[in-house]
Design brief:
11 strands, 0% helix, single chain, mainly beta
Length: 110
């Protein structure tokens, strides 16, 4: 099984990593561009559903004030109940917007 992540980058500095956790696939997309959003399409997956948890901060180098799933990450690295949002899955494609200077953790599952 091969999963592909393509982005409508237009030169955006974007990195993506995929891992398997049990039967789920988790794709982490990092948009390192501080000025432009990215539209990401994940294809080649049999997933019927997907959720996204977003990581954001004041800057890419911020060491405080970052949030995961809309919840501020504490100084000790913990955070209470991050929120995940539903991702649109059409056919064998998941479509996710990744705002400038942020990351998205996308879980694809049946």
């Amino acid at each position: 099984e091969q999963i592909a992540a393509t982005a409508n980058t237009g030169g955006i500095n974007l990195t993506a990593y995929a891992t398997r956790q049990d039967r789920d696939t988790v794709v982490t997309v990092i948009n390192k561009d501080m000025n432009r959003d990215a539209a990401v399409e994940i294809s080649g997956t049999p997933a019927k559903q997907a959720i996204v948890t977003r990581l954001a901060g004041r800057s890419l180098a911020a060491t405080t004030g970052a949030s995961l799933g809309g919840t501020i990450i504490a100084a000790d690295g913990t955070w209470p109940s991050p929120r995940s949002d539903t991702v649109r899955v059409t056919g064998a494609k998941a479509l996710v917007d990744v705002p400038a200077g942020s990351a998205a953790l996308i879980r694809l599952y049946d």
